[in-house]
Amino acid sequence: MIDFEMPTPVSRQVQFIGMLGEQVMRPRARYYDDHEGERPVEYTSLIWQTVRAQGGRNFSADTSERLDRDGRPRPRIGYLMLAHMVEALSWGDAGMYLATPGAGLGGAAVDATGTPEQKERFLRRFGEGEPKWSAMAMTEPHAGSDTAAIRTRARLSDDGREWILDGEKIFVTSGAMAARDSAGFVVVWATLDPSAGRAAIKPFVVEAGTPGMLVTKLEHKHGIRASDTAAIIFQHCRIPRENLLGSEEISDGRSSGGKGFAGAMRTFDATRPLVAASAIGIARASLEFTITYLRQRGVTIRYDVPLHRQTAIERDLRQMEAQHRAAWLLVLRAVTAMDAGQDNALEASMSKVKAGQVATFIAQKAVELLGPEGYSCTLLLEKWMRDARINDIYEGTGQINRLIVARRLLGYSSRELR
User: Fold this and answer.
1) Residue from 87, 288, 395, 416 carrying the catalytic annotation
2) Is 162 one of the annotated active-site residues of the chain?
3) Residue 297 pLDDT
4) CATH top-level class for 8-106?
Protein backbone atom coordinates (compact mmCIF):
# COMPACT_ATOMS: atom_id res chain seq x y z
CA MET A 1 0.00 0.00 0.00
CA ILE A 2 1.27 3.49 -0.86
CA ASP A 3 1.20 6.08 1.91
CA PHE A 4 0.78 9.49 0.31
CA GLU A 5 1.90 11.36 3.42
CA MET A 6 5.58 12.26 3.11
CA PRO A 7 7.64 10.65 5.93
CA THR A 8 9.39 13.15 8.20
CA PRO A 9 12.96 12.16 7.16
CA VAL A 10 11.97 12.60 3.50
CA SER A 11 10.30 15.95 4.22
CA ARG A 12 13.47 17.28 5.88
CA GLN A 13 15.65 16.26 2.94
CA VAL A 14 13.24 17.77 0.43
CA GLN A 15 13.12 21.04 2.38
CA PHE A 16 16.92 21.29 2.37
CA ILE A 17 17.19 20.43 -1.32
CA GLY A 18 14.45 22.92 -2.14
CA MET A 19 16.56 25.68 -0.59
CA LEU A 20 19.63 24.42 -2.43
CA GLY A 21 17.71 24.44 -5.70
CA GLU A 22 16.36 27.94 -5.19
CA GLN A 23 19.49 29.60 -3.80
CA VAL A 24 22.34 27.75 -5.54
CA MET A 25 21.11 25.90 -8.62
CA ARG A 26 18.56 28.24 -10.20
CA PRO A 27 20.78 31.37 -10.05
CA ARG A 28 23.61 29.54 -11.87
CA ALA A 29 21.52 27.43 -14.25
CA ARG A 30 21.81 29.78 -17.22
CA TYR A 31 25.54 30.24 -16.73
CA TYR A 32 26.33 26.54 -16.86
CA ASP A 33 23.97 26.07 -19.77
CA ASP A 34 25.92 28.72 -21.67
CA HIS A 35 29.32 27.39 -20.49
CA GLU A 36 28.98 23.71 -21.26
CA GLY A 37 31.87 21.69 -19.90
CA GLU A 38 32.50 23.79 -16.80
CA ARG A 39 31.96 21.90 -13.58
CA PRO A 40 29.26 23.47 -11.34
CA VAL A 41 31.62 23.77 -8.39
CA GLU A 42 29.29 25.81 -6.17
CA TYR A 43 26.71 23.05 -6.34
CA THR A 44 29.03 20.04 -6.19
CA SER A 45 30.91 21.41 -3.17
CA LEU A 46 27.73 21.98 -1.19
CA ILE A 47 25.93 18.77 -2.16
CA TRP A 48 29.02 16.67 -1.43
CA GLN A 49 28.54 17.37 2.27
CA THR A 50 25.13 15.74 2.09
CA VAL A 51 26.36 12.88 -0.09
CA ARG A 52 29.22 12.14 2.31
CA ALA A 53 26.81 12.09 5.24
CA GLN A 54 24.96 9.28 3.43
CA GLY A 55 28.15 7.33 2.79
CA GLY A 56 28.60 8.74 -0.70
CA ARG A 57 25.87 6.56 -2.17
CA ASN A 58 23.68 9.25 -3.63
CA PHE A 59 21.93 6.87 -6.04
CA SER A 60 21.90 3.80 -3.80
CA ALA A 61 19.01 3.47 -1.43
CA ASP A 62 19.44 2.46 2.19
CA THR A 63 17.22 -0.62 2.34
CA SER A 64 18.31 -1.87 5.76
CA GLU A 65 15.50 -2.79 8.12
CA ARG A 66 14.70 -0.45 10.99
CA LEU A 67 12.45 -0.96 13.99
CA ASP A 68 10.05 1.43 15.67
CA ARG A 69 9.88 2.03 19.42
CA ASP A 70 7.75 -1.07 19.87
CA GLY A 71 10.23 -3.27 18.02
CA ARG A 72 8.08 -3.58 14.89
CA PRO A 73 9.67 -3.25 11.41
CA ARG A 74 9.29 0.15 9.83
CA PRO A 75 8.51 0.33 6.11
CA ARG A 76 11.65 0.86 4.05
CA ILE A 77 11.70 4.26 2.38
CA GLY A 78 15.14 4.30 0.72
CA TYR A 79 13.97 4.56 -2.88
CA LEU A 80 11.06 6.78 -1.93
CA MET A 81 13.58 9.13 -0.34
CA LEU A 82 15.72 9.09 -3.48
CA ALA A 83 12.77 9.79 -5.76
CA HIS A 84 11.81 12.88 -3.76
CA MET A 85 15.44 14.06 -3.65
CA VAL A 86 15.97 13.60 -7.38
CA GLU A 87 12.69 15.37 -8.16
CA ALA A 88 13.64 18.33 -5.98
CA LEU A 89 17.16 18.56 -7.38
CA SER A 90 15.86 18.46 -10.95
CA TRP A 91 13.41 21.20 -10.08
CA GLY A 92 16.53 23.24 -9.27
CA ASP A 93 18.45 22.23 -12.39
CA ALA A 94 18.53 18.82 -14.09
CA GLY A 95 22.01 19.31 -15.53
CA MET A 96 23.56 20.14 -12.16
CA TYR A 97 21.69 17.26 -10.55
CA LEU A 98 23.31 14.89 -13.04
CA ALA A 99 26.71 16.27 -11.98
CA THR A 100 26.09 15.27 -8.35
CA PRO A 101 29.22 13.60 -6.94
CA GLY A 102 28.85 10.18 -5.39
CA ALA A 103 28.47 6.53 -6.31
CA GLY A 104 25.95 7.35 -9.04
CA LEU A 105 25.03 4.94 -11.83
CA GLY A 106 28.28 3.06 -11.43
CA GLY A 107 27.45 2.55 -7.79
CA ALA A 108 23.99 1.27 -8.69
CA ALA A 109 25.64 -1.32 -10.95
CA VAL A 110 28.00 -2.37 -8.16
CA ASP A 111 25.01 -2.68 -5.81
CA ALA A 112 23.08 -4.82 -8.28
CA THR A 113 25.88 -7.13 -9.44
CA GLY A 114 28.81 -7.05 -7.01
CA THR A 115 29.71 -9.34 -4.14
CA PRO A 116 29.59 -7.97 -0.57
CA GLU A 117 33.38 -7.64 -0.67
CA GLN A 118 33.25 -5.70 -3.93
CA LYS A 119 30.56 -3.36 -2.62
CA GLU A 120 32.71 -2.61 0.41
CA ARG A 121 35.82 -2.11 -1.70
CA PHE A 122 34.37 0.15 -4.37
CA LEU A 123 31.65 2.06 -2.55
CA ARG A 124 33.35 2.87 0.74
CA ARG A 125 35.53 5.50 -0.93
CA PHE A 126 32.49 7.68 -1.68
CA GLY A 127 32.04 8.55 1.96
CA GLU A 128 35.54 9.98 2.24
CA GLY A 129 37.72 12.84 1.02
CA GLU A 130 37.02 15.14 -1.90
CA PRO A 131 34.07 14.91 -4.35
CA LYS A 132 34.31 11.94 -6.69
CA TRP A 133 32.14 10.33 -9.35
CA SER A 134 31.35 6.99 -10.91
CA ALA A 135 29.73 6.17 -14.26
CA MET A 136 28.20 3.28 -16.15
CA ALA A 137 29.34 2.62 -19.72
CA MET A 138 27.04 0.44 -21.77
CA THR A 139 26.04 2.20 -25.03
CA GLU A 140 28.27 1.70 -28.07
CA PRO A 141 28.24 3.31 -31.55
CA HIS A 142 26.48 0.24 -32.97
CA ALA A 143 24.69 -0.93 -29.79
CA GLY A 144 22.22 1.49 -28.26
CA SER A 145 18.99 -0.11 -27.12
CA ASP A 146 20.14 -3.48 -28.49
CA THR A 147 22.49 -4.26 -25.63
CA ALA A 148 22.97 -7.82 -26.87
CA ALA A 149 25.04 -6.33 -29.69
CA ILE A 150 27.78 -5.08 -27.34
CA ARG A 151 31.21 -5.65 -28.89
CA THR A 152 33.55 -4.38 -26.19
CA ARG A 153 35.62 -7.47 -25.37
CA ALA A 154 37.09 -8.71 -22.11
CA ARG A 155 39.68 -11.48 -22.12
CA LEU A 156 42.02 -12.85 -19.50
CA SER A 157 45.72 -12.08 -19.71
CA ASP A 158 48.10 -14.95 -20.37
CA ASP A 159 48.96 -15.23 -16.68
CA GLY A 160 45.27 -15.15 -15.68
CA ARG A 161 45.73 -12.24 -13.27
CA GLU A 162 44.08 -9.47 -15.26
CA TRP A 163 41.22 -8.73 -17.59
CA ILE A 164 42.08 -6.90 -20.80
CA LEU A 165 39.35 -4.64 -22.21
CA ASP A 166 39.14 -3.40 -25.80
CA GLY A 167 36.27 -1.39 -27.23
CA GLU A 168 34.44 1.94 -27.35
CA LYS A 169 31.61 3.38 -25.27
CA ILE A 170 29.59 6.51 -26.01
CA PHE A 171 27.09 8.76 -24.19
CA VAL A 172 28.57 7.96 -20.77
CA THR A 173 26.96 10.26 -18.21
CA SER A 174 29.65 11.79 -15.94
CA GLY A 175 32.16 9.72 -17.91
CA ALA A 176 34.91 12.33 -17.95
CA MET A 177 34.68 13.05 -14.23
CA ALA A 178 34.56 9.35 -13.34
CA ALA A 179 37.45 8.38 -15.64
CA ARG A 180 39.77 11.24 -14.77
CA ASP A 181 39.13 12.18 -11.14
CA SER A 182 41.05 10.50 -8.35
CA ALA A 183 39.23 7.52 -6.77
CA GLY A 184 36.38 7.49 -9.30
CA PHE A 185 35.53 4.55 -11.53
CA VAL A 186 33.60 3.49 -14.62
CA VAL A 187 31.56 0.27 -14.73
CA VAL A 188 32.09 -1.10 -18.25
CA TRP A 189 29.79 -3.72 -19.72
CA ALA A 190 31.75 -6.06 -21.99
CA THR A 191 31.37 -9.52 -23.46
CA LEU A 192 33.47 -12.55 -22.66
CA ASP A 193 32.22 -14.34 -25.77
CA PRO A 194 30.24 -12.57 -28.53
CA SER A 195 28.80 -15.89 -29.73
CA ALA A 196 27.12 -16.44 -26.34
CA GLY A 197 24.89 -13.34 -26.58
CA ARG A 198 23.61 -11.60 -23.46
CA ALA A 199 24.75 -14.42 -21.16
CA ALA A 200 28.40 -13.46 -21.74
CA ILE A 201 27.96 -9.74 -21.00
CA LYS A 202 29.60 -8.80 -17.69
CA PRO A 203 30.30 -5.60 -15.71
CA PHE A 204 33.90 -4.59 -14.99
CA VAL A 205 35.11 -1.82 -12.70
CA VAL A 206 37.77 0.34 -14.36
CA GLU A 207 39.23 2.77 -11.87
CA ALA A 208 40.08 6.38 -12.74
CA GLY A 209 43.48 6.84 -14.35
CA THR A 210 43.82 3.22 -15.49
CA PRO A 211 46.17 3.08 -18.51
CA GLY A 212 44.29 2.21 -21.67
CA MET A 213 41.08 4.06 -20.69
CA LEU A 214 40.88 7.33 -22.63
CA VAL A 215 38.15 9.96 -22.83
CA THR A 216 38.08 10.88 -26.51
CA LYS A 217 35.12 13.25 -26.72
CA LEU A 218 32.74 15.37 -24.67
CA GLU A 219 29.34 15.68 -26.31
CA HIS A 220 27.93 19.10 -27.18
CA LYS A 221 24.33 18.60 -26.13
CA HIS A 222 20.84 19.99 -26.66
CA GLY A 223 20.13 20.07 -22.91
CA ILE A 224 21.43 19.02 -19.44
CA ARG A 225 24.60 20.88 -20.38
CA ALA A 226 26.03 21.16 -16.86
CA SER A 227 26.50 17.39 -16.97
CA ASP A 228 29.38 15.88 -18.95
CA THR A 229 28.54 13.14 -21.46
CA ALA A 230 31.65 11.39 -22.74
CA ALA A 231 32.93 8.92 -25.29
CA ILE A 232 35.54 6.55 -23.86
CA ILE A 233 37.79 4.05 -25.63
CA PHE A 234 39.51 1.08 -24.04
CA GLN A 235 42.73 0.00 -25.70
CA HIS A 236 44.40 -3.01 -24.13
CA CYS A 237 43.10 -1.70 -20.80
CA ARG A 238 44.26 -4.00 -18.00
CA ILE A 239 42.34 -4.31 -14.74
CA PRO A 240 42.66 -6.76 -11.83
CA ARG A 241 40.79 -10.04 -12.24
CA GLU A 242 38.75 -9.30 -9.12
CA ASN A 243 37.32 -6.17 -10.81
CA LEU A 244 34.76 -8.27 -12.65
CA LEU A 245 31.55 -7.79 -10.66
CA GLY A 246 29.93 -11.02 -9.62
CA SER A 247 30.64 -14.37 -11.24
CA GLU A 248 32.84 -15.14 -14.27
CA GLU A 249 30.43 -17.92 -15.19
CA ILE A 250 28.59 -17.51 -18.51
CA SER A 251 24.95 -18.25 -17.74
CA ASP A 252 21.44 -16.86 -18.18
CA GLY A 253 21.76 -14.95 -14.90
CA ARG A 254 19.47 -17.19 -12.84
CA SER A 255 22.10 -19.66 -11.72
CA SER A 256 24.48 -16.85 -10.82
CA GLY A 257 21.99 -15.04 -8.62
CA GLY A 258 20.97 -12.41 -11.15
CA LYS A 259 24.48 -11.14 -11.88
CA GLY A 260 25.85 -10.37 -15.31
CA PHE A 261 23.34 -9.05 -17.85
CA ALA A 262 20.39 -9.91 -15.63
CA GLY A 263 22.03 -7.67 -13.03
CA ALA A 264 22.13 -4.85 -15.56
CA MET A 265 18.39 -5.13 -16.01
CA ARG A 266 17.91 -5.08 -12.24
CA THR A 267 20.00 -1.91 -12.16
CA PHE A 268 17.55 -0.30 -14.58
CA ASP A 269 14.59 -1.37 -12.43
CA ALA A 270 16.15 0.75 -9.66
CA THR A 271 17.28 3.72 -11.75
CA ARG A 272 14.43 4.17 -14.26
CA PRO A 273 12.00 5.45 -11.61
CA LEU A 274 14.67 7.96 -10.57
CA VAL A 275 15.02 9.16 -14.17
CA ALA A 276 11.25 9.50 -14.14
CA ALA A 277 11.47 11.50 -10.90
CA SER A 278 13.98 13.82 -12.58
CA ALA A 279 11.53 14.36 -15.43
CA ILE A 280 8.81 15.19 -12.89
CA GLY A 281 11.10 17.80 -11.31
CA ILE A 282 11.53 19.56 -14.66
CA ALA A 283 7.80 19.32 -15.31
CA ARG A 284 6.98 20.81 -11.90
CA ALA A 285 9.44 23.67 -12.45
CA SER A 286 7.82 24.49 -15.79
CA LEU A 287 4.27 24.18 -14.48
CA GLU A 288 4.78 26.22 -11.31
CA PHE A 289 6.60 28.96 -13.16
CA THR A 290 3.91 29.21 -15.83
CA ILE A 291 1.04 29.35 -13.32
CA THR A 292 2.81 32.05 -11.29
CA TYR A 293 3.78 34.05 -14.38
CA LEU A 294 0.21 34.04 -15.73
CA ARG A 295 -1.32 34.78 -12.33
CA GLN A 296 0.83 37.91 -12.05
CA ARG A 297 -0.76 38.99 -15.33
CA GLY A 298 -4.31 38.35 -14.18
CA VAL A 299 -4.78 34.85 -15.60
CA THR A 300 -5.94 32.32 -13.01
CA ILE A 301 -7.49 28.86 -13.10
CA ARG A 302 -11.16 28.78 -12.05
CA TYR A 303 -11.44 25.30 -10.60
CA ASP A 304 -15.12 25.80 -9.75
CA VAL A 305 -16.04 26.43 -13.40
CA PRO A 306 -16.83 23.51 -15.76
CA LEU A 307 -14.27 22.80 -18.45
CA HIS A 308 -16.57 23.80 -21.30
CA ARG A 309 -16.90 27.28 -19.77
CA GLN A 310 -13.19 27.80 -19.14
CA THR A 311 -10.74 29.56 -21.41
CA ALA A 312 -8.31 27.61 -23.61
CA ILE A 313 -5.44 28.62 -21.29
CA GLU A 314 -7.31 27.34 -18.23
CA ARG A 315 -8.01 24.02 -19.91
CA ASP A 316 -4.36 23.67 -20.93
CA LEU A 317 -3.15 24.36 -17.39
CA ARG A 318 -5.57 21.85 -15.88
CA GLN A 319 -4.45 19.21 -18.35
CA MET A 320 -0.82 19.96 -17.47
CA GLU A 321 -1.60 19.58 -13.77
CA ALA A 322 -3.47 16.31 -14.30
CA GLN A 323 -0.69 14.79 -16.39
CA HIS A 324 1.94 15.88 -13.86
CA ARG A 325 0.08 14.22 -10.99
CA ALA A 326 -0.56 11.01 -12.94
CA ALA A 327 3.12 10.64 -13.82
CA TRP A 328 4.23 11.31 -10.23
CA LEU A 329 1.84 8.64 -8.93
CA LEU A 330 3.46 6.09 -11.26
CA VAL A 331 6.87 7.05 -9.87
CA LEU A 332 5.64 6.59 -6.30
CA ARG A 333 4.22 3.20 -7.21
CA ALA A 334 7.51 2.06 -8.76
CA VAL A 335 9.73 3.14 -5.85
CA THR A 336 7.30 1.81 -3.24
CA ALA A 337 7.47 -1.62 -4.90
CA MET A 338 11.27 -1.38 -4.95
CA ASP A 339 11.37 -0.53 -1.24
CA ALA A 340 9.10 -3.49 -0.53
CA GLY A 341 11.49 -5.84 -2.33
CA GLN A 342 8.96 -6.58 -5.06
CA ASP A 343 9.60 -7.08 -8.76
CA ASN A 344 8.99 -3.61 -10.18
CA ALA A 345 10.20 -3.99 -13.79
CA LEU A 346 6.73 -3.20 -15.16
CA GLU A 347 6.19 -0.23 -12.85
CA ALA A 348 9.71 1.10 -13.50
CA SER A 349 9.19 1.14 -17.26
CA MET A 350 5.67 2.54 -16.97
CA SER A 351 6.87 5.43 -14.82
CA LYS A 352 9.78 6.11 -17.18
CA VAL A 353 7.54 6.19 -20.26
CA LYS A 354 4.88 8.39 -18.69
CA ALA A 355 7.21 10.85 -16.98
CA GLY A 356 9.39 11.35 -20.06
CA GLN A 357 6.33 12.03 -22.16
CA VAL A 358 4.73 14.33 -19.59
CA ALA A 359 7.87 16.39 -18.95
CA THR A 360 8.23 17.12 -22.65
CA PHE A 361 4.53 17.93 -23.00
CA ILE A 362 4.41 20.29 -20.00
CA ALA A 363 7.65 22.14 -20.79
CA GLN A 364 6.70 22.59 -24.43
CA LYS A 365 3.17 23.71 -23.56
CA ALA A 366 4.60 26.20 -21.03
CA VAL A 367 6.79 27.75 -23.71
CA GLU A 368 3.77 27.91 -26.01
CA LEU A 369 1.54 29.60 -23.42
CA LEU A 370 4.11 32.31 -22.71
CA GLY A 371 4.68 32.99 -26.39
CA PRO A 372 7.76 35.02 -27.42
CA GLU A 373 8.89 35.39 -23.80
CA GLY A 374 8.68 31.65 -23.27
CA TYR A 375 10.73 31.01 -26.39
CA SER A 376 13.39 33.58 -25.52
CA CYS A 377 16.43 33.00 -23.32
CA THR A 378 15.20 35.67 -20.90
CA LEU A 379 13.38 32.95 -18.96
CA LEU A 380 14.49 29.42 -18.08
CA LEU A 381 11.46 27.84 -19.75
CA GLU A 382 13.19 27.20 -23.06
CA LYS A 383 16.06 25.56 -21.17
CA TRP A 384 13.66 23.32 -19.26
CA MET A 385 12.09 22.31 -22.57
CA ARG A 386 15.53 21.24 -23.83
CA ASP A 387 16.40 19.52 -20.55
CA ALA A 388 13.12 17.61 -20.50
CA ARG A 389 13.69 15.85 -23.80
CA ILE A 390 16.54 13.62 -22.56
CA ASN A 391 14.24 11.81 -20.12
CA ASP A 392 12.54 9.96 -22.96
CA ILE A 393 15.90 8.85 -24.37
CA TYR A 394 18.44 7.71 -21.79
CA GLU A 395 18.09 4.75 -19.40
CA GLY A 396 16.09 3.03 -22.14
CA THR A 397 14.20 5.01 -24.78
CA GLY A 398 10.46 5.48 -24.61
CA GLN A 399 10.05 2.94 -27.41
CA ILE A 400 12.09 0.28 -25.57
CA ASN A 401 10.24 0.83 -22.31
CA ARG A 402 6.90 0.59 -24.11
CA LEU A 403 8.05 -2.78 -25.42
CA ILE A 404 8.93 -3.87 -21.88
CA VAL A 405 5.48 -2.82 -20.65
CA ALA A 406 3.78 -4.66 -23.51
CA ARG A 407 5.79 -7.84 -22.94
CA ARG A 408 5.01 -7.80 -19.23
CA LEU A 409 1.29 -7.19 -19.71
CA LEU A 410 0.83 -9.66 -22.57
CA GLY A 411 3.25 -12.33 -21.39
CA TYR A 412 5.56 -12.24 -24.41
CA SER A 413 9.32 -12.77 -24.42
CA SER A 414 11.80 -10.39 -26.04
CA ARG A 415 12.05 -12.78 -28.98
CA GLU A 416 8.31 -12.93 -29.46
CA LEU A 417 7.71 -9.18 -29.28
CA ARG A 418 10.41 -6.97 -30.73
Assistant:
1) 395
2) no
3) 92
4) mainly alpha
